[in-house]
Amino acid sequence: MPKTIPMIITNDTILVKEKEGNKFLSFDMPGIEPEVNIPFYHEFAKRIAECQYHFKEFIKKEYGKKFHKNILGIIIPDDTSTLESIFINEFFVNSGACKAVAQMTMGQALSKHHSRYIAISKTNRNVILQYINNNEVMARKLYDFSNYNVKQIYEDAKRLHIDVEYSGAPIFVNNINMNMDDFFDLGEVISPKAFMDKIAAIDVEKL
Question: From residue 170, how far is each of 6, 33, 113 by CA, in Å?
Fold first, then answer.
């Protein structure tokens, strides 16, 4: 059985679960200078072979000789586009650091005990409102991260999907990037530690 290596792409780094224990190690590519409103990993495309090599060596150092037989379980930002998702897959699969890749958005990983809920998160370009039902993103709305109204987002959350309009749903605030202070009163706040604890136990069957 291949081993799943949990991994989180945050606003500014890649976190990879250590082999022993539930802590996460940060993979930071030297010389990367992110641009405003553009995810940092876009810069990998400019030095793709170099970045892939460094990532493979990073995984090899932590997971040993059989590192390439593992599967990366990648938790991606909630506003990741289809093209970005494809790039993420191709980058890591072609790095030689794994056998395969599986993806899930952060919003889909916020609760293991609720089949349906609202997720709110923020990246360096958007505030993202999502309705999750049975691990699927049923509805999503994006707001410019530099121009949003918390009250309006809360009102939109009540009407994001017909399910929510009629029966409501709990709200979870994803604070993995420690940038959600404005939203603390809207629902249950998921701290970075709580989020990483959830991801540390993830496996491919859950993705």
Answer: 26, 38, 11
- Is-above-0.85 flag for pTM? yes
CB of 170 closer than 8 Å to CB of 157: no
- 153: tokens are 């987002």
> What pLDDT was estimated at residue 201?
80
Encode pLDDT of 133-181 as tens digits: 999 999 999 999 999 999 999 999 999 999 998 888 999 999 999 999 9
DSSP 102-123: EEEETGGGS-SS-SEEEEEEE-
By the 8 A CB rule, do 120 and 180 touch?
A: yes
30: left (phi over 0), alpha (psi -120 to 50) or beta: beta
Alpha carbons within 13 A on the beta-carbon side of 83 = 3
Burial of 49: CB neighbours in 10 Å, binned 0-12, 13-18, 19+: exposed
DSSP state of 176: T
